[in-house]
Structure formats: structure tokens, C-alpha cells
């Protein structure tokens, strides 16, 4: 924590600031995973004698001539008191001789600082320092040894502290100014929006008590500002180091930035937008090292000037970072990564905190930060987390690589292919669940990873794009395999290849991400997850690993029930085997509604095929209805053009896929949208993978169908319906097209404020009582 008296910095953070130099160079990476690193450290320590001390906490104080103090702390890997030998253990892959010089320079700097702190603590006059590199593939140690005096180590310590002191003083002043400004920060509008204040009060309570809040608030409540403002107000009193605003999609991050803009203006608050690497990269055809990319050359030498330029401003969005980065000839993406250490609010995708290698979580752990975490549209987190913690490899990709015959790698590729063939021969069906990860296949995968890592570290060898992509996918598979437990399943899916060969796709699927997410929530001082669709709360608690004392809040709608007319089309079934029969009545319902009240409508369907069939029916029998449709693989410009058709007082029907780009996160207020048609319950497709999930959920929670199909589907329906009413003056209609919407167990999941005023029931006086599936 930072105070007026001193500034505390971790050894690693201090060295990252003062000891990095030269090019940005990722050729010696990817480094071993966190689990491999922990296991490697344990293996090295296990080889030491009984008196060997592990994980030694160290701390020391630097006092400048002007009286300023800098406290440096950290945890050294191991110490042998009999030999007076301090060790810093670094795990690696590949030929150590190919390690970039600046990587090793950084590692020595860390060890030198630990050395001084140990000498000071134990009153040692000399110390042996061992930088121990451990190859996780070969299980071999390579020690590099120095002996240094206490005085020499103190000189190194002073050099680093003096290089950092000015920045530390600036950070202390910034923190004090920021907290003073936040204490007096006023809500940026004259009035709160409906129940927005009730939401804000509960967010503030969660921050004050250090708890997790799960808040369901209808679309239009003003959730973004209603969560950001109270968390910012809580920062000074709760001594929060920073705030992470995490969103599933780009529109959610933009809404957060829009809400933050009026809050930043009267404060020195630093707001950082973190973007994906592929969106921020200026040279996607170049590799990330100085010999290939001009923005990687001398990156760390040019970083200090770029960093100083960034902090002259408080608004660090993608455009600002790019402007400053290019002015200083550095990579915009990695400049953003560096500035995450110094931001007050980071607006980012979920993976920056929740993924196994999430930058924001890693920084919070390394620097002992107290963080507030806001999770926007949290109904997405279950599926996103499953994706983060799952991995798939396709044998077809492997065979394509074998045909490329990459030098030094082909034999290892063929060995993995033989193991894959053996698995394929054992599968009698298209989808084959396995009780565990096949051991011989996994061993062959590890050998391939080691081989690729070895040859990739030997210049002038360059991985082809396809080999590099497979390598990264293989590394993810290996990392997920380390975490494989009862919350995962392993399966093989067979498919026919272009050459008549059967390809086997092996997947490790995480079904319950709770055990992976729980440490992330535990690491935050306070977390708030909010969405319009979090019912039932037990589903979220079971799958997200929330703390036991988490609080549930259901915010009342700010809208009157007479603003929205909800109609259930009970005479139509959209079950898969009845879809052909549903096309004519759905097209008729759309045309009839449009004729009665011309205006802009959205029509949602469960798939592109279903959507296209209804569009064809509408075009043939009701050509007078203007319409446009979402297409497969729409880019950003096409999505913008789709939404641009929804003009005030415009007329027409936009067809979209339920759960897709237009099903949430878009704002079409007033006459830009007067109604929506939602066909199907949004249930996931019945297939072997989803049936495996259903059986798993039944065994674990006793609610297999609900957890695998019903709850995810209804979430998409409610999100799509939430596009219609965006303000207190809006009026609209929603048509829920399927008789199953009228069943009690489904009606119980729909928003309480909805008043279903009528049901379309043409030619059938009784609603159907068929099963949900």
C-alpha cells in the first residue's frame, strides 16, 4: 500500500521498471505455465538438503538524501544457510543459450535485490548467488553462480531505488490527489434513474464489507454507471489500489468508457482500455521481436519516455495509446500491458482477469493489490469461463503439418499422429467420451511441445504460421491437462476429412468452472456481478464458485408494466421436428403485427438456417414488409450498417440470430425499435456434447436439463427482449413464439415486471402441454 510516508514496491515490479532493456523479444517464450513453474520450483527444492529454506519473505527500506522512503519487499525462492547461498529459480523450455540477454539481465537484477535484502536481514558480509534455470521438459538444472559482497549488493540496491524514486513520488502524489477527488466526486446527473440508486447502495455496501454481490437488474436500470460510481466512491475509504471493469464483448467495454468519461473530467483518475492483441497489432505479419518488428526493436529502451507521455493524460483508451505508442516508436499493445501497472480503472475483456494467465489478476497477486472487480453482463461468464478452461486439438491440423514437413519436428508430429490413430480406432461412435486423458497421447503431445520449443529457439529457424498456431494450441491443451479433475470431461469426436480419412478431435471440456473462478473472486477485495438475466441465482452460485457469503439483489424494473405488451404465440411450436410447419404462421404473425403498427422490429431465431427459411417465406407471401438480415461472419462495418437501418420513425424488420451480435449490448431507444419477435426458447442444440453436459449436470446438481438447456436458453430470450424498452417514454411489443413459453416452469423464469396481456391462440383454444424439449 502507498502512504504519504513511504511507497512499497515488490522486487519483481521494481526490476520490471528499472532493469528491462533492449528489444521486446518473445522468441524464448511461451514460458512454462504457472502450474509447471510451481512444480519446477518444488522439484528443485526437493533436491536440496533438509536445512534448505524455501520461500523466504524479505523486506528492506531505502532512505534518500531528501528523506523519502521506499520499502522494497519480496519472496526469494530458496536459501541454504550453511553454504550462505541464495537461489532464484527460473523455469524454462528450450536451449538456454538462446535466451535473450535482456531476459537474463532482468533475472540477475531480481536476485541481486533479494541478495541485499537477505544480507541486511541476516547481517551477512558476503553471499553466494545462484540463478538456477530449470528445464521443465528435461528436468535439468543449469546454475549460474556469483559471489558478491554486502557492499556491492547495497550499491545495486541503491541504484535501482534511486532510478525508481521519482516515479514512486509521482505515484504517491497521484494516489493522494485521486483519493481526495473521489471523496468529493458527485453523481454526474441531477437524478438517479429509477432503481439505479438501490443498485448503487448495494454496490457500495459490497465494497465496504469486502463481499461479493450478485445483482440482477433489468435492462435500462443504468447498471454501468450504477456500479462504477459507488465503487469509485468506495476506493479511498477502502484503500483500493484499482478497479477492474470486465465485459464480455466490445459494446460493453464501450458503455463503460462512455460512463467513465464524465467521471474522469473532474478527477485525476487514470482509465485504461485493454484490447486484444490482434486488434492492437500494427504489424500482424511480423513476429514479436526486434529483428522482425520495428515496434519491438529497442522497446524497453524507449518505454520510459512513452510511459511518461501516457501519464500526462488520464484517459488511456485504445486511440490515445496508439497515438503515443507510434509517436515513440513502440508497440501499442505492449504499451497498454505495461500501463496496466499504473492505471486506476482498467476496462477489459473477462480474460484479462479470469483466464489462467490473466494479466490483471497476475499483477494484483504480484503487487498485493486490493482490487474492486465489476463483471458486466455476468450471465456470459459461465460459458466464457468454460471456453477459457477448455482445449481442443484436431488431428486434421496435425496431418496438414506433417505434409509441410517442418525441419526437426516431423518425427514428433508423426509420433503424435500414431497415438491419435490408435484412439480413433477405439472409437465406435462419432462422439466418444473418455474416462481420463489418454496417457500415451498426452506423453506424445509433451514430446512434440518440447521439440518445437527446442527448434524454435535456434535462429534462423522460424515457425510457420500453421505450426505456431498448433504449438500455442498444444501448449493450452497441456496447461488444461494439468488442471483436469472431476469438473472436466475428455472426449473424442470423429469427422470425415477431405481425403477420405477420419480425423479425431480431442477435447478437454470444463463443465463447471467454479473451482477455477473461485480463487479469482477470493483475490478481489470486493466483486460485483450484474446482468438482467441471472435467475435462478443458485445456477450462478453453483457454476461460478462465488464466495459463500455472497449477496443476491434483484432490482425492481424502472419501467411500468403497461410500457411493454408481451404476447405468447401458443399456436406455434418451434421444436426442431415442427419447424417447417412453423414458417408460414411465423411469417404471417410478423406481417400482421407490422401492418397493425408499422415501425422497426427485430426478429430473433435460433439459427441462420431457421432465420433464412422464415425470410424466404416472408419475401414470398408478404413482400410488402421491408426487411434486412444478419449474415454469417458479419464484420464490424456490416454490423454497423445493420443497426443503422433502425432510424427514428423507420419501418422494417431486422432478422438476427438469438444470442448473437444483436441479441444484447445494443441500444435502440424510442422509435428506433418498437417490438421484437423471439422464436424458440433459445435452447442449445441437442447433440452428443450437450447431452454429455446434461448427464454431468444431472449427476452433480440434480438439474441436468435446466442447467444444460433451459437456463442458458431463457437467458438469451430475456436479453433479446431487453432491446425493446430502453427508457421511460418507450412503448413496445414482444412476441414470444412457442407454446412452451406459457408453461409454468418457463413463465417463472421470465421477468416479474412483464405483464403478459394476451396470448395468440388461433384455431386452438387450449395451450399445448407437451414437454419442453
Automatic annotation (TrEMBL):
One of the GO biological process terms: DNA repair
Pfam families: DEAD, DEAD_2, Helicase_C_2
Domain Helicase ATP-binding: 182-430
Sorted UniProt keywords: 4Fe-4S, ATP-binding, DNA damage, DNA repair, DNA-binding, Helicase, Hydrolase, Iron, Iron-sulfur, Isomerase, Metal-binding, Nucleotide-binding
InterPro entries: ATP-dep_Helicase_C (IPR006555), DEAD/DEAH_box_helicase_dom (IPR011545), DinG/Rad3-like (IPR045028), Helic_SF1/SF2_ATP-bd_DinG/Rad3 (IPR014013), Helicase-like_DEXD_c2 (IPR006554), P-loop_NTPase (IPR027417), PDDEXK-like_dom_sf (IPR011604), RAD3-like_helicase_DEAD (IPR010614)
GO molecular function, one term: 4 iron, 4 sulfur cluster binding
The keyword Nucleotide-binding is annotated on this UniProt entry: yes
Superkingdom per UniProt: Bacteria
Family per record: Belongs to the helicase family. DinG subfamily.
Protein name (database record): Helicase c2
Amino acid at each position: 500500500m502507498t502512504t504519504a510516508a513511504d511507497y512499497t514496491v515488490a522486487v519483481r515490479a521494481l526490476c520490471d521498471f528499472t532493469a528491462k532493456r533492449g528489444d521486446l523479444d518473445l522468441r524464448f517464450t511461451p514460458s512454462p505455465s504457472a502450474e509447471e513453474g510451481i512444480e519446477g520450483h518444488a522439484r528443485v527444492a526437493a533436491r536440496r538438503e533438509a536445512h534448505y529454506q524455501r520461500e523466504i519473505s524479505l523486506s528492506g527500506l531505502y532512505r534518500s538524501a531528501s528523506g523519502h522512503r521506499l520499502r522494497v519487499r519480496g519472496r526469494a525462492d530458496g536459501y541454504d544457510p550453511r553454504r550462505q547461498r541464495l537461489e532464484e529459480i527460473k523455469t524454462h523450455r528450450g536451449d538456454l543459450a538462446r535466451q535473450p540477454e535482456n531476459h537474463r539481465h532482468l533475472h540477475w537484477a531480481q536476485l541481486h535485490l533479494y541478495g541485499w535484502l537477505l544480507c541486511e536481514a541476516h547481517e551477512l558480509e558476503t553471499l553466494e548467488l545462484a540463478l538456477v534455470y530449470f528445464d521443465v521438459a528435461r528436468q535439468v538444472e543449469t546454475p549460474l553462480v556469483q559471489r558478491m559482497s554486502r557492499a556491492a549488493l547495497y550499491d545495486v540496491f541503491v541504484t535501482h531505488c534511486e532510478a525508481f524514486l521519482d516515479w514512486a513520488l509521482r505515484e504517491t502524489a497521484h494516489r493522494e490527489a485521486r483519493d481526495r477527488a473521489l471523496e468529493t466526486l458527485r453523481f454526474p446527473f441531477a437524478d438517479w434513474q429509477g432503481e439505479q440508486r438501490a443498485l448503487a447502495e448495494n454496490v457500495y455496501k459490497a465494497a465496504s464489507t469486502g463481499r461479493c454481490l450478485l445483482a440482477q437488474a433489468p435492462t435500462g436500470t443504468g447498471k454501468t454507471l450504477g456500479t462504477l460510481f459507488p465503487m469509485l466512491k468506495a476506493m479511498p475509504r477502502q484503500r483500493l489500489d484499482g478497479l477492474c471493469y470486465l465485459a464480455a464483448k466490445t459494446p460493453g467495454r464501450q458503455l463503460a468508457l462512455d460512463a467513465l468519461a464524465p467521471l474522469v473530467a473532474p478527477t485525476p483518475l487514470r482509465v485504461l482500455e485493454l484490447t486484444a492483441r490482434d486488434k492492437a497489432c500494427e504489424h500482424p505479419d511480423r513476429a514479436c521481436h526486434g529483428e522482425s518488428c520495428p515496434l519491438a526493436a529497442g522497446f524497453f529502451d524507449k518505454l520510459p519516455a512513452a510511459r511518461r507521455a501516457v501519464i500526462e493524460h488520464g484517459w488511456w483508451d485504445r486511440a490515445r495509446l496508439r497515438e503515443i505508442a507510434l509517436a515513440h516508436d513502440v508497440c501499442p499493445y505492449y504499451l497498454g500491458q505495461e500501463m496496466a501497472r499504473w492505471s486506476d480503472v482498467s476496462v477489459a475483456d473477462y480474460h484479462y482477469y479470469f483466464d489462467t494467465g490473466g494479466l490483471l489478476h497476475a499483477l494484483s497477486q504480484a503487487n498485493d493489490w486490493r482490487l474492486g472487480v465489476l463483471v458486466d453482463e455476468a450471465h456470459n461468464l459461465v460459458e466464457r469461463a468454460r471456453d477459457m478452461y477448455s482445449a481442443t486439438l484436431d488431428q486434421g491440423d496435425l496431418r496438414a503439418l506433417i505434409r509441410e514437413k517442418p525441419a526437426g519436428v516431423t518425427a514428433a508430429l508423426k509420433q503424435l499422429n500414431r497415438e491419435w490413430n490408435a484412439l480413433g480406432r477405439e472409437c465406435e461412435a462419432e462422439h466418444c467420451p473418455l474416462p481420463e486423458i489418454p496417457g500415451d497421447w498426452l506423453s506424445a503431445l509433451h514430446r512434440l511441445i518440447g521439440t518445437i520449443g527446442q527448434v524454435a529457439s535456434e535462429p534462423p529457424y522460424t515457425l510457420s504460421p500453421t505450426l505456431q498456431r498448433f504449438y500455442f494450441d498444444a501448449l493450452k491443451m497441456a496447461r488444461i491437462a494439468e488442471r483436469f479433475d472431476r469438473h472436466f470431461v475428455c472426449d473424442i469426436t470423429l469427422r470425415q476429412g477431405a481425403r477420405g480419412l477420419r480425423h479425431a478431435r480431442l477435447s478437454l471440456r470444463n463443465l463447471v468452472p467454479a473451482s477455477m473462478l473461485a480463487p479469482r473472486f477470493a483475490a478481489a477485495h470486493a466483486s460485483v456481478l450484474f446482468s438482467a438475466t441471472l435467475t435462478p441465482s443458485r445456477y450462478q452460485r453453483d457454476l461460478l464458485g462465488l464466495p459463500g457469503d455472497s449477496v443476491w439483489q434483484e432490482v425492481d424494473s424502472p419501467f411500468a408494466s403497461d410500457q411493454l405488451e408481451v404476447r405468447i404465440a401458443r399456436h406455434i411450436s418451434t421444436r426442431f421436428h415442427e419447424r417447417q410447419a412453423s414458417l408460414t404462421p411465423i411469417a404471417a404473425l410478423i406481417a400482421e403485427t407490422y401492418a397493425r403498427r408499422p415501425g422497426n422490429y427485430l426478429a430473433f431465431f435460433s439459427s441462420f438456417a431457421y432465420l433464412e427459411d422464415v425470410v424466404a417465406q416472408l419475401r414470398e407471401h408478404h413482400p410488402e414488409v421491408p426487411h434486412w438480415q444478419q449474415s454469417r461472419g458479419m464484420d464490424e462495418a456490416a454490423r454497423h450498417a445493420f443497426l443503422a437501418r433502425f432510424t427514428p420513425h423507420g419501418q422494417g424488420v431486422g432478422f438476427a440470430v438469438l444470442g448473437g451480435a444483436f441479441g444484447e449490448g445494443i441500444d435502440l431507444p424510442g422509435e428506433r425499435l418498437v417490438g421484437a419477435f423471439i422464436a424458440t426458447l433459445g435452447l442449445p442444440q441437442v447433440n452428443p456434447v450437450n447431452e454429455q453436459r446434461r448427464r454431468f449436470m444431472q449427476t452433480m446438481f440434480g438439474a441436468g436439463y435446466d442447467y444444460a438447456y433451459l437456463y442458458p436458453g431463457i437467458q438469451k430470450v430475456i436479453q433479446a427482449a431487453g432491446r425493446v424498452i430502453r427508457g421511460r417514454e418507450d412503448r413496445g411489443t414482444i412476441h414470444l413464439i412457442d407454446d412452451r413459453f406459457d408453461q409454468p416452469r418457463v413463465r417463472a423464469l421470465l421477468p416479474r415486471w412483464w405483464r403478459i396481456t394476451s396470448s395468440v391462440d388461433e384455431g386452438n383454444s387450449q395451450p399445448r402441454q407437451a414437454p419442453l424439449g
